[in-house]
Structures are given as C-alpha cells and as structure tokens.
Design a protein that fits this description.
- It is a single chain.
- The protein is α/β, with parallel strands linked by helices.
- It folds into two domains: 99 residues, ATPase, nucleotide binding domain (Nucleotidyltransferase, domain 5), CATH 3.30.420; 160 residues, 2-Layer Sandwich (Nucleotidyltransferase, domain 5), CATH 3.30.420.
- 46% of the residues lie in helices and 17% in strands.
- The chain has ten helices and nine strands.
- The protein has a seven-stranded mixed beta sheet, sandwiched between helices. A two-stranded parallel ribbon has the order 1-2.
- Helix 7 crosses helix 8.
Length: 282
C-alpha cells in the first residue's frame, strides 16, 4: 500500500483500489515461479475478526479473488480472518502448539487482549481487555507522523529511539485489563510542541507502551489463571518492546515470534490453509 507522506492511513475506497491493482501484479509475478496447476488449496482472510459483525471492505478483494481461483482450479477455498492469521503466524514455528493461552494482538488498528482456546484448526476467542480508545498502532502513527516520520511510523520510531540517552517519562493509563492511549498521546504531543528531543520522545513512547502491556497482562493472568501469552501483530516486532517485556515479565511465559512473522499475516493465513488441507491437528 502507498500512503502519501504526512497522512496517517488510507481510506477504504483507496485501499480497495490499491489491493485490486496490486493483486493483478502479484498474480503475474507468482506465475513466474509457481505453477497454478500444482496449487492444492487457497486460503484468505475475509474479515478482521471471527465475529459475525466484523467487516471491512478491503478484505472482499482477497475473498473474491480466492473464491474465483478456487472455482476455476476446482480446489478447496479455506476462509479465515486477519486476527486468526496473526495467531497462526505466531504458532507456525512451534512444533508443540499451546491449546489454551492469552494473546495480545497489537497492530495498527487493533489492541486486544484475548483468551484463546485452540480446537484443532479453529480458535475460540474471547476478548477480555485491550485499549479502551486508541489502538496502539494509531498511538504510534499519530505521534510519529507529527514527528515527521513516514506512515506507518513504527519502524522509523524504533530506529530513532536507538539514539536515546535520557528517555522521556510518559505516564500510562491502565485499569485492570484495559489501557488508554489517548492520555499518553496528548502528553507526548505537548512535549513535542515544547521541542523535546525526538529520540528521547521515541524511546519514552516505547517504554510507556511496554509498561502498559505488562500491567494488563499481569491483570489478565490473575483473572484467567493462564500464564502463556502469545504476542501477535506488527507492534510485536519492535525489538525494544520485546526485550523490555521479556526481561520484566515474571508471571508466566511470553511467546514472541520473529519480527517478520509478527508483521506478516499472509504466512499465518497460508499455514491455516495448509493445516486444513492436510487435516493437521484435526
């Protein structure tokens, strides 16, 4: 997706158009290395979450292309969701996969704390916490764009924070399993307007995020008695947040996957299709 400098995302209509344009290019590229005749099945995420009311127009592009190729090639089509794709991507590297665990989905549009039970190839997901206002990714992108960073701002913020010596102390707002990022955002914006050094502000944001996530995880573990936590979504690829949480978390087991798999939803969606076709875990 192409986002103009200074903007904080894409309208759904623009995103759908770009998806359609890019899909044609990707299919042409794939044909050079993969024979469609050897394709066994197709899987795609068809909506953001496994909820009846969950909907976003951009997902229709992948869904309809998947259904079309499934019909043309006479092969199975396995629909899943964006959130479940992230879960499968996180579990993909592990030979022994947990059946009951907490998941923290932290990405551009989502900050949700989930109680997950895996039934073979299906997830039973219950939301038990997360952000009460801004998703974590929006917090990062809003302050990042205001700092002059490109969108999405996460990788650039992380790189900038490496130069920090005296990070800004940003207060966090947590109540039980709920966290609010509107207050930290306003605080950070005020400090930026006062001319606070960008690298110190960037590291302060990372630290505040890490603390807030640790607080809600501690509350969730106490509430559910589950001590295995899987972190999914693009924000989980941040190295500072990962290392901070791993060194500070004493209440259970944190599972981080590689940064590439944290960001890449397609791997999880493909792995789900693979498991369904070969009836792995069924």
């Amino acid at each position: 997706m192409e986002v103009k400098h200074g903007e904080r995302g894409l309208r759904q209509s623009t995103a759908v158009f770009q998806h359609i344009q890019n899909m044609a290019c990707l299919i042409k590229k794939i044909k050079k290395t993969v024979s469609l005749k050897n394709t066994l099945a197709i899987s795609a995420s068809i909506k953001p979450r496994p909820l009846e009311e969950s909907y976003m127009p951009v997902f229709k592009v992948g869904e309809k292309h998947g259904q079309a190729f499934s019909g043309l090639l006479d092969i199975p089509f396995y629909p899943t969701t964006h959130q479940e794709g992230h879960l499968w991507a996180a579990l993909y590297p592990f030979e022994v996969k947990p059946e009951k665990f907490l998941a923290l989905h932290i990405s551009g549009g989502t900050t949700e704390l989930l109680k997950v039970t895996r039934h073979n190839n299906n997830f039973e997901i219950a939301k038990i916490g997360g952000s009460s206002d801004l998703p974590l990714g929006q917090f990062i992108d809003r302050i990042g764009v205001k700092m002059g960073l490109p969108f999405p701002s996460g990788p650039y913020l992380e790189e900038l924070a490496l130069k920090s010596v005296h990070p800004l102390d940003i207060p966090v707002s947590v109540k039980g399993c709920q966290v609010s990022y509107s207050g930290p955002l306003t605080f950070a914006e005020r400090q930026l307007d006062k001319g606070y050094k960008l690298e110190e502000l960037a590291r302060g944001i990372e630290t505040a995020i890490s603390k807030s996530l640790l607080y809600i995880l501690k509350a969730a573990i106490k509430q559910t008695d589950l001590s295995t936590v899987v972190l999914i979504g693009g924000v989980a690829s941040n190295r500072f947040i990962k290392n901070y949480m791993l060194s500070s978390f004493k209440d259970g087991k944190l599972i981080f996957t590689s940064p590439e798999l944290s960001r890449d939803n397609a791997v999880g969606v493909s792995y789900y299709g693979w498991c369904r076709y070969f009836k792995i875990y069924s």
